[in-house]
Design goal:
Radius of gyration: 32 Å
Oligomer: single chain
Number of strands: 4
Shape: elongated
Distance between the termini: 75 Å
Low-confidence stretches: 139-161
Order of helices and strands: HHHEEHHEE
Largest sheet: 2 strands, antiparallel
CATH architecture of the domain at 2-66: Roll
Helix content: 25-40%
Structural class: mainly alpha
Strand order of the largest sheet: 1-2
CATH class of the domain at 2-66: Alpha Beta
Mean pLDDT: 79
CATH topology of the domain at 2-66: Chitinase A, domain 3
Length: 161
């Protein structure tokens, strides 16, 4: 197919004759005003990057091989996008911003960590649970930062909550 197209054959005629794509074969291979968001990644990338009005190299996807000719690209305005497309675009841009910051700016920051030092008596007496919390020698913590000190004097109990 690609050789015939490179030789000057009409794209629509070739697509109608040879395409097995149920979404476009009867339409001469045309996906008019279709949203690329629904396409598989390899097909989408080719459609977004291929030069206009050029027959591209075959693209392999899980559906087979595709020969693509991009006739035009219509970039919709943000207000015309569906809610899920807006969310996907926002997530993509946020991810790119975070990656850019991590790769380019994070190392340049002058970060200072000013956490309080642990008193010497605490270092010797046992564990701590969370910033600034302490435990009583021989006590246990319940995983929520609360201390269970066991039985208090006179038979009363301390729940630590």
């Amino acid at each position: 197919m690609k050789a015939k197209l490179d030789g000057g054959a009409d794209f629509a005629t070739i697509a109608k004759k040879y395409s097995e794509d149920p979404g476009s074969a009867s339409n001469g291979g045309l996906y008019e005003n279709a949203s690329v968001a629904q396409w598989v990644p390899a097909f989408k990338e080719a459609a977004e990057t291929q030069p206009i009005n050029k027959i591209g190299e075959p693209v392999e996807t899980e559906y087979g091989y595709h020969v693509i000719k991009v006739e035009s690209r219509n970039e919709p305005t943000f207000d015309k996008l569906k809610d899920n497309e807006k969310a996907a675009l926002k997530n993509k841009l946020a991810g790119e911003s975070i990656q850019n910051f991590t790769e380019n700016d994070l190392a340049k920051l002058d970060l200072k960590i000013n956490l309080p030092k642990v008193p010497a008596t605490q270092e010797k007496s046992g564990a701590t649970s969370g910033a600034g919390s302490t435990t009583t020698p021989g006590a246990t913590t319940n995983g929520t930062g609360n201390t269970n000190a066991g039985t208090a004097k006179d038979g009363a109990t301390n729940e630590g909550k």
